[in-house]
Amino acid sequence: MRRTLTIHSLLSGLFMFLLANPAPADSIVNMESLHLKEPREGFSGNVELAASGASGNTDKSDVAAGARLEWHHDQRTTFIVGNYNYGRAADTTNTDNAFLHLRHIYQSTVNLAWEGFGQLQRDRFARLSLRELVGGGARFTLTPPSDSGAAFLGLGAFHEKEDLSEEAGTTDGGVEHNWRGSLYWVLKHHFHNDIRFVNSLYYQPDLNESSDYRVFDTASLQVDLTDRLALKLGLTVAYDSRPPQTVEQTDVTYRTGLAWSF
Fold it and tell me: For the segment 35-82, what is each residue's pLDDT rounded down to a tens digit?
């Protein structure tokens, strides 16, 4: 049988956890696909949905939607990934953010690829009206993709333009331009035929001031329910050494939902 007792036990445990701990639909963005082998030729993608809510003594609702579209041919891979998250509690909006990322990868040799990327992002509750960035760099294959997993190291840089919203009591509103380095490490692992894990760690220092940096760690666990439908759990820890005024340095967000692949 394709599903073993171990898988059924894990799924039962996951669903029990989800029932007891409904997850908020906060921003979880992992640029890396959970596919372990080389991308298949042509067009592919997936769509993710997550929602939770309560009414009565506690009134709240959270929804999230995301998608990844990918095209691969020979040595070239292009993908776009994005999501939108919205939440309310006690008739007050407490989550409102969106993200869109486009990346092109050219596999020059077995162990070296060149990539260029662009990104748009906004987060109402981080005072981020809009962040625009464009950059590129090199991607090194540390462990070639296989049935068991893969590992990659990326090194590059990007230029960003940030528009921070004005807020009473703050003095840092307006538009800023920065050059940042981009160092990332990606690990993918196949625990079982139906369970896949990917972790992406990013370090982005300001190239003019090393004390200004950002660190993101994003982990995703996917459990296949059918050939196309999967249960997906995500966790992100984000740290900004110099965030906008009134914004916390560290954010921890998590999400559970369903992903449909095509």
Answer: 555 677 899 998 988 888 888 878 889 988 999 999 999 999 999 999
d(CA 194, CA 225): 8
User: Residue 211's pLDDT band (boundaries 50, 70, 90)?
Assistant: very high
Which candidate, 184, 218, 181, 189, places its Cα nearest to that of 99?
Answer: 218
DSSP 231: E
E strand spans, the chain: 42-54, 60-73, 76-89, 92-107, 112-123, 128-143, 149-164, 174-192, 195-206, 209-224, 229-240, 250-261
SS3 18: helix
Amino acid at 233: L
pTM summary value: 0.83
Strands 195-206 and 229-240: unpaired
Backbone angles phi, psi at 102, to 5 degrees: -120, 135
Non-local (6+) Cβ contacts of 166 within 8 A are 173, 174
The neighbour count for residue 179, using CB atoms within 10 Å, is: 13
CA gap 102, 98 in Å, rounded: 14
For 31-35, 80-84, 216-220, which range has the lowest pLDDT when averaged over its residues? Answer: 31-35
Structural domains present in the chain: 5-261 (2.40.160.40)
